[in-house]
Design a protein that fits this description.
Blueprint: E1 4-7, H1 13-24, E2 28-33, H2 40-46, E3 50-54, H3 60-74, E4 79-82, E5 88-89, H4 97-125, E6 128-133, H5 146-166, E7 171-178, E8 191-192, H6 200-209, H7 222-230, E9 237-240, H8 244-261, H9 263-268
Parallel strand pairs: 1-2, 1-4, 2-3, 4-6, 5-8, 6-7, 7-9
């Protein structure tokens, strides 16, 4: 059975790849972008199966309006994929207030607004699947991506809570957590802080670890997303790529060890 997919940030990268994969197999897609002209090629090829929508997800009103247009056009919304967002690169001390707020507005609040807009529709349907594009960096962290890390950690907390709240309505929630992929996330789409010389050694060390062989192939993710959408019992979390799980295991082994080492102090603090 064909599905109706609402996907944000579909102008390029994962968003456009996944939108095309859904269209190619016969699904209906409402695809949003700041500039809908970036979807003209897909519109020409797939016609009425694609509804291009202009959307800046940081506007709550616009997010609600876009979801309403998609529902009116297709009659239902089966899957929402909150893909819109970008990377902010720079040390935490370097980050301006505007840079920090803009990052949270796009990566966290935009996702929240679209989610809130979709929930009444999915509750009325008694079914739905909300897929939040988080990151491996919502589970573990890397230096010079502190505000980005924070935005994705916020998405993780929000979405894990949401999953417990909406399960009884027949709505599933999945956090998709890619490791690095060769999209333009770290290129044209990224924002760079104004550098401070004091942090150059940290940045140099970070760059040294970012060798070409760690980057996944974006097109290879489409099969995983199709399987996720089709699963009757989708997971709460899904890593994408071969780097994420080993990295998370390493970090969580260290965390568990530290918690165990300090557990005597922790339990004593309980007071009884």
């Amino acid at each position: 059975m064909e599905k109706v997919i609402f996907i944000t940030g579909a102008s390029r990268g994962f968003g456009k790849l996944w939108a095309e994969a859904f269209l190619k197999r016969g699904d209906k897609v409402a695809a949003t972008a700041r500039n809908p002209e970036t979807l003209a090629d897909l519109k020409k090829q797939y016609g009425s199966a694609l509804l291009p929508l202009q959307l800046d997800v940081t506007s709550r009103d616009a997010s609600f309006a876009a979801i309403a247009k998609a529902k009116q056009h297709f009659g239902r919304i089966d899957v929402v994929i909150n893909n819109a967002g970008y990377g902010l690169f720079g040390a935490i001390e370097e980050t301006t207030e505007k840079e920090a707020r803009d990052q949270m507005e796009a990566n966290f609040f935009g996702l929240l607004w679209v989610t809130q807009a979709a929930l009444p529709i999915m509750r009325a349907q008694g079914s739905g699947h909300i897929i939040q594009l988080s990151s491996m960096l919502g589970v573990v962290t890397l230096p010079v991506l502190g505000i980005y890390n924070a935005s994705k950690f916020a998405v993780e907390g929000l979405s894990e809570t949401l999953a417990t709240e909406v399960k009884g309505f027949g709505i599933n929630v999945t956090l998709v957590e890619p490791n690095g992929f060769a999209t333009d996330w770290s290129g044209a789409s990224a924002i760079q802080t104004t550098p401070m010389n004091e942090y150059e050694p940290v940045k140099a060390s970070f760059r040294a670890t970012a060798s070409e062989d760690i980057w996944g192939v974006p097109a290879a993710t489409t099969e995983a997303i199709l399987k996720l959408v089709d699963s009757p019992t989708p997971p709460l979390r899904l890593f994408l790529g071969k780097i994420a799980l080993p990295f998370a295991k390493q970090v969580y082994t260290q965390r568990l060890s530290t918690w165990e080492d300090w557990n005597g102090v922790a339990t004593a603090a309980h007071g009884k």
